[in-house]
Design a protein that fits this description.
heterodimer; A: 350 residues; mainly alpha; 11 helices; 66% helix; B: 168 residues; 7 helices; 0% strand; extended
């Protein structure tokens, strides 16, 4: 059977989507395990250790548990929106991974195997999808018809909208340096001298603003006020059970992974090797030379996820007014300062 | 392929707009408006205006409509009663709307040669980036209107701050 180019394109794209989704969902499950293990070790206890060796099958057991639980739906909820909200949250969290390049360009019949779609405004697409994700949270809280949920979702939406500005502006410096919004171009400009040409060095300020805004954007500690369990029961997903709750849970961790991917791509050279051209480019033979970049990428993303967990287990939660004044009075001016500084440097360099 | 995209999202857009009018709960209307905006963004994209598409999603769907839903959520607006509407709507509004649509349709079809047509989806496949062109136009030819608009927005922000400020 002979396939035309269009058919190959469609088949390979579907294959890529399936593979990336499976890998993302698996890493979501194992990020949860990693979090429980690492926090356990930091707090001087074991963490999950019963299911399988070192508790490695714990995500599987959790998944089965969430699947088989009874799906409760209170009478007073706004039914269609109540069902729609977790779907919006999860799909927005998963869609943005489509523009992330995981490895070097490797074309098979004109289809790039290590990126689902190479869009020339990839960065803006990620920012846009993140800004849509807030509806999942806002609608879940409102449709639950519960005051704790509503308060949680109001806090979450206000927080996400406020920090989105600082997040977007902190990335402008990187875009100005590379002159493109295409993620591959941004990675390529950092690939020349290994870790020395990473964007983190000239964009240190932008990186820290991005990191803090990203933590707030994903509603993670120390900015996890929307689900502050000591005051709001569980925040916006109080009324959710079974798979609907699991969707919010997965969305949170998928967002963490996306944010880590963006940080890796923009500030840490993406899939390029930190050693630069120290090793020959075809090191390891025809197949391994395409696998190594993917491994570098995964390693860098893993470091960010570890940092996430470390921060969560170390820092206490912000107060709401502190959160707002920090976002508007510190992060936003700092990111603008970063833009002005980068523009001046670029202008003087010619 | 591009035609399929256009048909899907055009239908979605019109359906969202109709749903926006017929829903009785304000939050459902707000959500249909988001659907309209997102489908419009996809259509912009197929026409080669990818920056406009991204800006549409980020600014309108991501920021402005969030504030709309916020207001609806906080006001706790309930379902509206359906009224029969005024007589003026029946006698002037509906014929007027039909007239405007007919006029526009006639103009577009009659002056097709002068207005020109755009190749649907022709920009989807080439890797050109129109952001460079947009910024060049914006910061050279249209610099004055651009800056005046920024000052206008600044004035609006200051006004909002003055209104919201607590008197001590």
């Amino acid at each position: 059977m002979h396939l035309t180019d269009t058919q190959i394109f469609i088949l390979l794209t579907i294959l890529k989507i399936v593979v990336v989704l499976v890998i993302t969902l698996t890493s979501v499950a194992y990020t949860v395990l990693l979090e429980r293990k690492v926090i356990g070790l930091i707090q001087n206890r074991w963490g999950p250790s019963r299911v399988g060796p070192f508790g490695l099958f714990q995500p599987l057991a959790d998944g089965i548990k969430l699947f088989l639980k009874e799906d409760l739906m209170p009478f007073a909820v706004e039914r269609p929106l109540f069902v729609l909200a977790p779907l919006i949250a999860l799909s927005c969290a998963l869609v943005s991974i489509a523009v992330v390049p995981f490895g070097n360009v490797f074309e098979y019949h004109g289809v790039d195997l290590f990126q689902i779609s190479d869009i020339n405004i990839g960065l803006l697409v990620i920012l846009g999808i993140t800004s849509i994700g807030v509806y999942g949270i806002a609608l879940s809280g409102w449709s639950s018809n519960n005051k704790y949920s509503l308060l949680g979702s109001l806090r979450a939406s206000a927080q996400v909208i406020s920090y989105e500005l600082a997040l977007g502006l902190s990335l402008v410096g990187v875009v100005m340096r590379s002159g493109s919004l295409r993620l591959r171009d941004i990675v390529d400009t950092q690939a020349t001298h290994g870790f020395l040409s990473w964007n983190i060095w000239p964009q240190l300020l932008g990186f820290f603003v991005y990191l803090m805004a990203a933590y707030a954007e994903t509603n993670r500690a120390p900015f996890d006020l929307p689900e502050a369990e000591s005051e709001l029961v569980a925040g916006y997903h109080t009324e959710y059970s079974s798979m609907k709750f699991a969707m919010f849970f997965m969305a949170e961790y998928a967002n963490m992974i996306t944010v880590s991917c963006v940080a890796t791509l923009l500030f840490f050279g993406g899939a390029s090797s930190p050693l630069g051209h120290f090793l020959p480019d075809n090191f390891g033979g025809p197949i391994l030379m395409h696998i190594f970049p993917v491994l570098w990428f995964v390693f860098k993303v893993f470091c960010f996820l570890f940092l996430y967990i470390w921060v969560r287990s170390t820092l206490p939660r912000f107060r709401y007014d502190q959160l707002m004044s920090f976002g508007w009075k510190w992060l936003l001016p700092l990111s603008m300062l970063n833009i002005v500084g980068t523009a001046l440097v670029l202008a003087f360099k010619g | 392929m591009q035609l399929a995209l256009f048909i899907i999202f055009a239908v979605l857009c019109v359906a969202g707009a109709l749903n926006f009018l017929f829903q009785r709960h304000p939050i459902n209307s707000a959500l249909s408006l988001i659907v309209v905006m997102m489908s419009l963004a996809v259509i912009y994209w197929t026409l080669g205006a990818e920056f406009l598409a991204a800006a549409q999603v980020i600014v309108y769907s991501g920021a402005i409509m969030v504030l709309f839903t916020f207001v609806i959520m906080l006001l706790n607006a309930g379902e509206e009663d359906r009224t029969h509407g005024s007589k003026a709507a029946y006698f002037a509004g509906i014929p007027g709307a039909i007239g405007v649509v007919a006029l526009l349709g006639y103009t577009f079809f009659h002056e097709k040669a002068i207005l020109g047509s755009v190749n649907l989806g022709g920009h989807l496949n080439n890797g050109l980036n129109n952001m460079v062109e947009i910024s060049k136009t914006l910061f050279t030819d249209l610099l004055l209107p651009f800056e005046v608009t920024s000052i206008l927005i600044l004035v609006a922000i200051l006004g909002a701050v003055v209104l919201a400020r607590k008197e001590h």
